Amino acid sequence: MHGVRLEIHGPVAEVVLDGPPVNAVTVGMYETLTTVFRGLSARTDVHAVILRSTVRLFCAGADIKQPVEAVSPSESAAEMRQRMARTAYEAILDCALPTIAVINGAALGAGAVLAACCDIRYAADNARIGLPEINAGRCGGGSHLMRLLPQGQVRLMYLTGDPVDAQEAHRTGLVQRVATPDAVLAEARELAARIAAKSPLGLRLAKQALNEAENLPVRPGYAAEQVYTLRLGAHPDAAEAAKAVLEKRAPVWSWPGTPEG
User: Which domain holds residue 211?
Assistant: First the structure.
C-alpha cells in the first residue's frame, strides 16, 4: 500500500510507515495515509491508533526526487503534491480515534508534521525532530508545529533548519515521553491499550470536543466541550462508567450496539 501498512491488534490499530530506506513520503504514501486514517475513523472495533515506522528512522521528509506529472491543466504537479500532503495531514488531525506517534530516529519535514498531527508523541532518546525545508529551497510545516510549540521555538527551527533532539523536544512539550529505542514502542503500546479500554463513545466525543475547542477562546471552547459532555452523559455508557468505578470492576460498554441518541 505505497509504503504504508495497517496492522490491527485487538482494539488498537498500528499504521506503519514502511518505505525503506528512510520513509521518504511519496504522493502515493500521502494518498494511502488519507485512505487508512479515514477508514479507521469509520471503524467501531478500533479505539486507538499508533503511527510508527518499521525502518531505522521515523520519516526523513517528503520525497522531493519523485517525478510527479500534472493530471489537470488547472493544477500543477507541485500544487497536486501539496494538496495531497494537506489532505493526508488533515485525515490524521481529524481522525475520530486518539492517535499516538512513535518517533524513532529522525522525523524531518513531512515526518515532523506527521508526528505533530497526532494527539500524543512518544520519542526514542535518539530521535531528532526538525523542519529542514529552508535548506532545500522550500518552506515547511511550521503551522502544524505552532499548535504545539511557542512561536520563537518554531521560528528557530524553521529559519535555521536545525533539528531538536528528543530531550529538547520533551522539555518544550513537543513530545510527551522519551524512552530508549528498545522500549519506546512497548511503552506506546501500553498507553494505547490503556486508552482503548476507555468508553469507545467517550473517546470519540472527547476527541471531537478537543478538536473543536482547540482554536476557540476559553469561554466558547469550554461551552463547546459541554455540548459533548451532555451528549455522552445521555448515553447508557456514562452510567455504566460511574457504576463500574463504584463497584471497582471493569466497565462493560454497550456502544456501538446501543447507538447514540
Answer: 200-247
